[in-house]
Specification:
alpha+beta; Rossmann fold; OB fold (Dihydrolipoamide Acetyltransferase, E2P); 2 domains; 6-stranded mixed β-sheet; 5-stranded antiparallel β-sheet; 20 strands; elongated; binds adenosine-5'-triphosphate; binds magnesium ion
Length: 363
Amino acid sequence: MATVTFNQATRTYPGVQRPAVDKLDLEVADGEFLVLVGPSGSGKSTSLRMLAGLEEVNGGRILIGDRDVTDVPPKDRDIAMVFQNYALYPHMTVAENMGFALKIAGVGKEERAQRVLNAAKLLDLVPYLGRKPKALSGGQRQRVAMGRAIVRSPQVFLMDEPLSNLDAKLRVQTRTQISSLQRRLGVTTVYVTHDQVEALTMGDRIAVLADGALQQLGTPRDLYENPRNVFVAGFIGSPAMNLFTTDVTERGVRFGTQAVAVDRETRAAGTRVTLGVRPEDITLAGATEPGLRMTVDLVEELGADGYLYGHAIIDDERVNVTARVDGRTHPKVGDTVSATPKPGRIHLFDVGSGERLNPGIDG
Ligand SMILES: Nc1ncnc2c1ncn2[C@@H]1O[C@H](COP(=O)(O)OP(=O)(O)OP(=O)(O)O)[C@@H](O)[C@H]1O
Ligand SMILES: [Mg+2]
């Protein structure tokens, strides 16, 4: 097992001006499950491929444990990678697929069989060892791909969207299996996804990337409660945090007809701020109560709770607002209601830089 360190790691593709990954600083602890998350094109796969040795590093260093692997070929890095398209060899059995890398590495037949069997036990694949991939379900194939990585007992697992080929239900199941398997094996893992729910449920810590730059690194709770900037605030959480620009006055931050008290520094920071409030941190009341007047456009009932989607007019602009509501008793489409943030649950950001202004909710 080992730590992983990106030290100012940079990748600029030939013929492209802007780096795909720009001075990435990241330390993954021994045995940690780190999730790299970000929108399409943010540099997640490039970062992972740099760590795997499949992509040239144009600046900075990459370390596995104390060893600088920046110039070490992929096969000597002691890592195993699971890709999105994990193409199994169709003419080989499950056992042969899982043992193939060991065979190439010159591991003897008996040891190979033993290691394949151990991995198959971990993955509940023992009954399928003699089958060909086409006779397996999608989830089973995915587990064979995991098995190919596990048999090698690498220092680090790298996974690039390994669940994206699976349907929604299987994705949820397999996500749980991968998490518990990783915990059991205790192998340092870097896992790439663009799905923030996957990131929140699987990661010990999450690194959020945008445009090749690290936006924030923290536990799922850190990122949820204390997003460092507007990008992370809007990206982490589903449905997304409500974000809009509003005035700051002596009395506080304007939220419709209400002024939400904020500390002196925030009041001094400017006359306009970007205000964020999560759907579950909004309280709705009758239209005559103080707050942000909004019209209900849609209510999504999800059993015990639901989400209400509406809009308000702020400074002559239409702003969409999402609020979590009780699944049974809630305002109806077309109603006008007044929204207020729960005390202490607002996030404030600089309008220009997008950086957070107020202290975190738990901190
Ligand atoms: N071989 C390449 N040559 C030039 N540009 C590339 C190459 N591979 C990737 N890029 C560019 O680098 C940037 C980062 O790509 P990368 O594949 O790392 O994104 P990603 O975060 O994995 O996205 P996705 O979620 O879509 O997989 C993108 O702008 C992409 O177009
Ligand atoms: Mg990718």
